[in-house]
Amino acid sequence: MDVNYENTRREIATDTGILRYHEAGDGPPLLLLHGSGIGVNGWRNFRGNLGFYADHFHCYVLEFPGFGVSDPVPGHPVLTAVDSVVRFMDALDLDSAAMIGNSMGGVVAVNVAIEHPQRVEKIVAIGGVGHSLLAANPSEGTRLLSEFADHPTREGLLRWLRCMIHDPKMITEEIIEERWSAAVEPDAQASLRAMYGSEALARQQQFLEHSPTPPYWSMLHKVKSPVLMTWGADDRQCPTDMALIPLRQIPNAELHVFPRCGHWVMYEAKEAFERVTLEFLHR
């Protein structure tokens, strides 16, 4: 099968809207869950890796609600993404699956594992999971996202993209144009504001200070599936010290740090990332 956009594109109806996704390969099921950010979706996150994993797994690249592809639903994007994974698996009769989650996608995967442990076989998390103990909070990347969410400009997009990658030469004009075109889509703008707008960040801080519900990272001891955390040593969106809490709290967790690499590990350290994660998934 030629693993391209058109050949892999699918959609499925659920009780709360249509979920769109990309499907390729044969073998055990593997869900690829995208991150947040400017102009993001599942295809853009994983199109460079899908062909590799499709040689070993039956892959599903799920598009979360609110990012301009699947039908939007009310609620915070992280919470609706967790619900969408369960809805998606139910709709396709997937009892359980391994999951690769980029940043927010990793957070979504561990939350599914906390709430529905029987549905998650293994997790590969690309940054994102945990809570920063040593670095500035919010991080440089989050501050740039907040600035863009409040006042979207092409220059703001470029500043954020350069923050995602260790090697600036990897930020091509094609990537800039593609992300800018997607970022001005209304659903994508609304989702970005809901997560990173200055008002949203202020509300999240107030919620953390006064909520009776503990943050998800304090419940990581409930994750029973094996977890491989992958991190770029030069990640300016999610600094590497975030990995300390999950590394201690998750009973079966391990960490691999890639040198000279930023937040987009699956893109910037593609071959090494695929090799390390395939060994973990096959183990």
UniProtKB/TrEMBL annotation:
Pfam families referenced in this protein's UniProt entry, alphabetically: Abhydrolase_1 (PF00561)
GO biological process: acylglycerol catabolic process
GO MF annotations, alphabetized: monoacylglycerol lipase activity
GO cellular component, one term: membrane
InterPro entries for this protein: AB_hydrolase_1, AB_hydrolase_fold, AB_hydrolase_sf
Ranges where the AB hydrolase-1 domain occurs: 28-268
Keywords: Hydrolase
UniProt keyword annotation of Hydrolase present: yes
Identification of the protein by name: Alpha/beta fold hydrolase
Annotated source species: Nocardia yunnanensis
